[in-house]
Design a protein that fits this description.
The protein has 125 residues and is of the alpha+beta class. It has one domain: 2-Layer Sandwich (50s Ribosomal Protein L5, Chain: A), CATH 3.30.1440. Helices cover 35% and strands 31% of the residues. It contains five helices and seven strands, in the order βαββααββαββα. Strands 1, 2, 3, 4, 5, 6 and 7 form a seven-stranded antiparallel sheet that branches. 30% of the residues are buried.
Length: 125
């Protein structure tokens, strides 16, 4: 299954760039980092999402994650947002609104949306 992801988050004037990088590192093992102005983006393949997959399992929120992923899927692309403050502490937390520090915006392109969602957030029983 083909899979490429990009995660992007703003760097606010009051934030330390190293801490923002730590936030992204807590959720993803990325292949590349791009710093552009007041944003940091990371990207990678399916293996880069193993931390996120494990965090969903540990927190036992795979069913909630499935709903968010399904709701955010359009034509082979999945969009969702993670809470930046929670990610800094190593906790995965999906968000639908905007937060004061901004959020981590994730875009996943895949040739098998359903198969990818089954892999990332296996249905809990």
């Amino acid at each position: 299954m083909k899979c490429e992801f990009t995660a992007q988050t703003p760097i606010n004037p009051t934030e330390d760039t190293d801490k923002v990088m730590k936030t992204l590192s807590n959720m993803f093992d990325y292949d590349e980092v791009v710093m552009a102005g007041d944003y940091i983006s990371v990207n990678g393949g399916m293996d880069s999402l193993l931390k996120l997959k494990d965090a969903l399992e540990v927190r036992r929120i795979r069913n909630t994650a499935r709903k968010m992923l399904i709701n955010g899927s359009y034509d082979g692309v999945i969009y969702f947002k993670l809470n930046k403050q929670a990610a800094f502490s190593g906790t995965v937390n999906f968000t639908e609104g905007d937060s004061p520090l901004g959020e981590i915006r994730v875009k996943i392109e895949t040739d098998d949306v359903e198969g990818f969602i089954d892999w990332l957030a296996t249905l809990q029983k």
